[in-house]
Each structure stands twice: as C-alpha cells, then as structure tokens.
C-alpha cells in the first residue's frame, strides 16, 4: 500500500516514556484533538521556551 502524500506535514519517528502514553491517549480522546495537533502544540511551546538559547 502506498504511503499517503503529506503536503503540509513531515512524518518522523520518535518514542515516549511508557508512563506518558496512557495520559497522552486519554488527552487526545477527551479533547477530541488529534495527537499530531497536540504534538504540534507541545513542540511549539518547547521551541518558544528555548528560543533565547537557540539564538546564542
């Protein structure tokens, strides 16, 4: 089966601590927000937090 074309996204592989998976799954379920969107938000927050050190 062919991989679907992702025009505005880039696929990558990562892993999570086992203890985070259940809570992450529950958050996505309760909020009805896709995990990919939740990850986008988390990465954006992380980049803002570390923006100052990235400039140095």
TrEMBL record:
It comes from the Bacteria. GO terms for biological process: regulation of DNA-templated transcription. The lineage of its organism: Bacteria, Bacillati, Bacillota, Negativicutes, Veillonellales. This is Ribbon-helix-helix. Gene3D superfamilies: Met repressor-like. It comes from Lucifera butyrica. Residues 9-51 form the Predicted DNA-binding protein ribbon-helix-helix domain. InterPro entries: Arc_rbn_hlx_hlx, Predicted_DNA_bind_prot_RHH, Ribbon_hlx_hlx.
């Amino acid at each position: 089966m062919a991989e679907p074309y992702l025009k505005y996204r880039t696929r990558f592989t990562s892993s999570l601590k086992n203890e985070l998976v259940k809570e992450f799954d529950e958050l996505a379920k309760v909020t009805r927000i896709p995990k990919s969107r939740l990850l986008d938000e988390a990465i954006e927050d992380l980049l803002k937090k570390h923006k100052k050190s990235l400039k140095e």
